Structures are given as structure tokens and as C-alpha cells.
Amino acid sequence: MLVKPPLADVSPGQPVTAQGWNELVGGLSDLYDEVLAFGTGALEVSVVDDGDPVLGATVTAVPIGDGQPTHAIAPFPGRSTYTLVGLSDGNWTVHAEADGYQAQSIEVTVPRSEPLPVNLLIDGSVMPDLFGRQLRTALTDLAAASIGVDLIFDTTGRELP
């Protein structure tokens, strides 16, 4: 952890001693080391559902070992990847989650030049498109998606047997 050294006031024209100069140089060196320890790496994460970008996901990288989690910057217009910045070199676990999907975790080594692909899987059943289908076909499609049917109504709101 960076500790601020005591700073001395000097008058204009007063020479700096070798000890004072060495303390300045040592302090700057410590500052550089601490700033570099934050990490300068970046990682692009492509969160998709069967090839289509998933917007509104939460992407977080957690270093394996010691360190703090880093949250990704969401895609902005013209981009479809999430961006993790300030990563140090080494092994990280990237977590991605979005409403309606199962959370995914993937281990990755930084630096990495290509985007990390994360394919999210739907959590639960997806309602098939039943518009314009015959009743028997619609019931077959619903059964194939593991969606049970308790009641069926016609277009006027009457229950069908």
C-alpha cells in the first residue's frame, strides 16, 4: 500500500540535499509501482445467446488469488462487447449473468488479445411462436418446450373443452 511520506517545505534557491533528492526519487518509484499494480490490461467479453449479443448483462472479473473484482463497462453504440479495464496480468474468473439466463463463469489468462466469448443459456422454457398455428400443432409445440397447458380459450374468451 502506498504511504505518503512527510513532505518538507523549502525556500526558493535553497539546494536540495542528496537525501532529499533520494526521498523524492524513491517516492516516485513507489508511486509508479503502486499505480502499475492496479493493472493496465483490458479484456473484451462477448456475451451472446446462440450468436446474438445479450445486452443488459452484468460482467465481472475476479482475480484468482488476491485482489478486488472489476466490473465491465457495458457496450455502447457501435459496440457489442463488454470491456473490463484495469486488469493485471494473470488468471481471472469472468462471471456473466443476465435476466432470463443461467449465469456463466469462465477462467481466462490476461493478457488476451481476442474477445472472450461467453454463451449464455436460457434459464427455463422459451415460449414458442404460436401465432396462426392450428390447436393441435400449438399443443405439440408447447409440449416439446415442456410448457404445460391447463386451460384453452377461444378468441372471444370462452373456455374450450
For the biggest sheet, the summary is:
4 strands, mixed
User: Would you tell me the structural class of the helices and strands?
Assistant: alpha+beta
The low-confidence runs, each spanning 5 or more residues with pLDDT under 50, are none
- Count the DSSP helices: 2
The proportion of residues forming helix, as a percent range, comes to 10-25%
Strand content: 25-35%
Radius of gyration, Cα only, in angstroms? 28 Å
Q: How many β-strands, per DSSP?
A: 12
- Envelope shape: rod-shaped
Mean pLDDT: 87
In sequence order, what are the helices and strands, one letter per element? HEEEEEEEEEEHEE
The span between the termini is: 73 Å
Structural description of this entry:
The protein has two helices and twelve strands, in the order αββββββββββαββ. By secondary structure, the chain is of the alpha+beta class. A hairpin with a 6-residue loop joins strand 3 and strand 4. Strands 1, 2, 5 and 9 form a four-stranded mixed beta sheet that branches. Strands 4-3-6-8 form a four-stranded antiparallel beta sheet, with no helix packed on it. Strands 7-10 form a two-stranded antiparallel ribbon.
In short:
It is built from two helices and twelve strands; from the N terminus they run H-E-E-E-E-E-E-E-E-E-E-H-E-E. With 161 residues, it is α+β, with helices and mostly antiparallel strands. The strands form four sheets. Strands 1, 2, 5 and 9 form a four-stranded mixed sheet that branches. The protein has a four-stranded antiparallel sheet with strand order 4-3-6-8, with no helix packed on it.
